Amino acid sequence: MTFIRSERYAAGFLLIAGILGLLMANLSFGPALIDALNEHLHTGLFGLDLSTKHWISDGLLAVFFFLIAIELKRELVIGDLNSVGKAALPALAAFGGVLVPAGIYLLLTQGSGLAAGWPVPTATDIAFALGVLAVFGRGIPTRVRVFLLALAVLDDLVAILIIAFFFTQDPQLQYIGFAAITATLFGVTSRMLKPRSAWVLGRKPVWPIVTALTVLGLATWYFTYLSGVHATIAGVILGLVMARVPGGRAHHVLEPYSNAVILPLFAFSAALVAIPQVSLAELSPAFWGILVALPVGKLLGITLAGTLGSMISRRPNGSRSGLKFADIVMVACLGGIGFTVSLLMGALAFAGNTEVVDEATLAVLLGSGFAILVSAVVVSVRARQYRRAAEKLHPAVSPSTR
């Protein structure tokens, strides 16, 4: 399963699933397939009444957010965000990459009554961005990938906060309390699996603890769903409270399923949209706002804020950041690939208005697609420059000179 962990394969799965969903939605059986995914499954299980599509976006996607939270915690504890100095540059770039796209969207949709969609173009898809860099970036220095990863992780943190605070309606405090209790128990129980601690199990089986963690995790998700907070936030909470070492193990175990099943399944269901049979002039301002703000806003915001950050941020030895302007522009192009989280926020922002949700989905797919094409070119050119520079510094020794 090693290849499934690869960033390039993860991006490929997402792209194929998104294209397949859009294609199938516009075939003769497309409407029936869309209706089937929107059909509610009346299981009567604990009062849950969700459609197949919502089981994917609210249920399975919580696992993806769980893995994001584990990555975030690792970066904050021992990674590239564990000090103010390290976090300053990606934090400034991420801030610019959120503020400018949101501003462009609001500017293009002013007076339309669709301002609620401002969060949609603010997200960056970690899997896709890193995948494009992996495919076309042979020769790109590790420091550039680290910068992109840190920026994308912070970007997703902002997206998580947006979902938690702006897409929560009528919160039920009692269920939030229950979720807090089960999440706390989850965190405490996870520490029983931590090596070299008072809870070392030796050769005893760990399945009772793993079972308890599974039950507590499901309970946290259930109470979060009932509380009115978007259920994927449960995954974030669990990832943050889980002990770091067991969390790393859980990430290793679950990552292939997230890359090969959960994210493609979500991309397929989210992209299952019939292309509107209308003229360009009849498309809503939300469509144009997202289409422009996602690739262009990210490019401008990350480039401006990242350049400013690289000028003022310094390493511990007093030197400036090793990132050049061309590197920041390249990362800014990759940042315009919104896809997964943007699709989720589009569905949340325009919930109840199916037509606008569909147009927002198309805008995310087209905007991300444009960003992918531009990124592929820019990354390829930049990688070629780095390879040529490396060849000049370390020229190959020809047989005649040996």
UniProtKB/TrEMBL annotation:
It is a multi-pass membrane protein. It holds the Pfam family Na_H_antiport_1. InterPro entries: Na/H_antiporter_dom_sf, NhaA. The keyword Transmembrane applies. One of its GO terms (molecular function) is sodium:proton antiporter activity. The keyword Membrane applies. One of its GO terms (biological process) is regulation of pH. The chain crosses the membrane at residues 12-34, 54-72, 84-108, 114-136, 148-167, 173-193, 205-223, 229-245, 257-275, 287-308, 328-350, 362-383. One of its GO terms (cellular component) is plasma membrane. It catalyses: Na(+)(in) + 2 H(+)(out) = Na(+)(out) + 2 H(+)(in). It comes from the Bacteria. It is found in: Cell inner membrane; Cell membrane. Signal peptide: none annotated. Keywords: Antiport, Cell membrane, Ion transport, Membrane, Sodium, Sodium transport, Transmembrane, Transmembrane helix, Transport. Na(+)/H(+) antiporter that extrudes sodium in exchange for external protons. Belongs to the NhaA Na(+)/H(+) (TC 2.A.33) antiporter family. This is Na(+)/H(+) antiporter NhaA. It comes from Cryobacterium arcticum.
